[in-house]
Amino acid sequence: MLIILWETGVYFWVLNNTPEALYQLSARYSARTSFVLITIILLWIGATGLRKIYRSAFKRLHLITLILLLAVNHLIHFGFLYANLQPENFGKFLLENHLPALLYVALMISPWLLFSKKTLTSPLYWGILIFLIGLEIIFLQTYVGRLSSPKPLGSPTYFYLGCIVLIGVTLGLNINRVVTEHLKGAN
After folding, report:
1. Whose CA is closest to 81, among 145, 133, 7?
2. 13-72 pLDDT, tens per residue?
3. Membrane-spanning regions, if any (predicted)?
4. Cα–Cα distance between 142 and 98 in angstroms, integer?
5. What is the pTM of this model?
6. Dihedral sign, CA of 162, 164, 170, 175?
7. What are the extents of the domains in the chain?
């Protein structure tokens, strides 16, 4: 509910813009909300460890709830993106971005899959990490692309650089966590 309220606020905030900018800005800010959620999830996993989170039913439920919020937010983002690109351009967009499209489908399915899994098996452990890091890498690719090819209504360079540094921190933290857990024999 909180995500839907947030996205409604984003939509009304950008209403003061031209009709051409309305859906573009709504899509951008809903994507940034997804970026914040993914970053929070990965920082938590990197700092705490996925195994430790999964050992506690309470923490596991919070992780799955965050992933569900991410899925709901990204569904809203999908609607804004579709409206921004226009139906005639959307098919081409999906073909050019097939890996993000596949991760999008996985994101829509993941909360329900995770709700049914009470124990963290090795394939689930690696699947969750690879999936979330894959999403973060898509943001990395997007932000690096914005630096090399600015878009209309784009953000300042420092915003993209800050996001790239934050992605580097989350990736480094999670790589360190995985290596540390393996050296301790946790897997």
Report:
1. 7
2. 656 666 667 777 777 788 888 899 999 999 999 999 999 999 999 999 999 999 999 988
3. 29-50, 62-85, 97-115, 124-145, 157-175
4. 14
5. 0.83
6. negative
7. 2-85+101-183
